[in-house]
Amino acid sequence: MSALDHDITHRPDYAMLRVRLQKGQQVFAEPSAMATMEPDIELKAGLRGGLKASLGRAFGGESFIVNTFTARNAGEITFAPGPAGDLVHYTLRGQRLFLQRGAFVANSAGVNVTGSWQGAKGFFSGEGLVLLQASGEGDVFFSSYGAILELDVRDAYIVDTGYVVAFEDTLQYQVTVLPGLRVGSKIKSFFFGGEGLVCRFSGQGKVWIQTRTINPFLSWVYPFRPVKRNSS
Length: 232
Fold this sequence. Notes:
By secondary structure, this protein is mainly beta. The chain has a single domain, classed as Double-stranded beta-helix. Helices cover 15% and strands 48% of the residues. It contains 4 helices and 17 strands. The chain has helices at residues 50-59, 119-124, 183-192, 214-221, and strands spanning 5-9, 16-21, 26-29, 34-37, 41-46, 66-71, 75-79, 87-99, 104-108, 111-117, 130-143, 148-153, 156-160, 164-168, 171-177, 197-203, 205-210. Strands 3, 5, 6, 8, 9, 10, 11, 12, 14 and 17 form a 10-stranded antiparallel sheet that branches. Strands 1-2-7-4 form a 4-stranded antiparallel sheet, with no helix packed on it. The chain has a 3-stranded antiparallel sheet with strand order 13-16-15. It is flat and about 60 Å long. It starts with a strand and ends in an 11-residue tail after the last helix.
């Protein structure tokens, strides 16, 4: 496993990833994530892991194309995720890590990122039928809107579906409604994605949650939008 020399700055509001590559070393990233790079780093865009893996990433909310950055000589590159928020590093040692749609930023050689079919529970989670799955050995970096908190689950834990960023494959999860909701509220939650849908995690492992989600923010901003009025 070839670990990347890196650091994460400007956390948690506008996090950036800085990677220092040695000659011949590579890093793989989502298109448009690169902010700066030195001239000795070469960029190549294309499929990675074959057509099936690329389709899996696309269904998981990421780009069909992956950018490969290779250092001809030692050089530095920085990445800036799209959302205004946090960024986290995780080391894979043969296990799997599941990510919400749009969370992937970059990974080292030895890591494969593709989609993982979640069936009906993926549909009801509000995040789509496919989650992203990172596997192999190496470094993976993921981001979110808002700050990211790491939680250790030792038995059971409940998280609103909109706040789940990532979780380890040692955890099992079930999407359900928040206990105590009335029947009408439960129906609304299932079919319209309303308040009350939660992930009930069980087992032992880590889950990462975000401190903000984009939809409540947009709802808060909406009344302040400029409105064009008729001159008559």
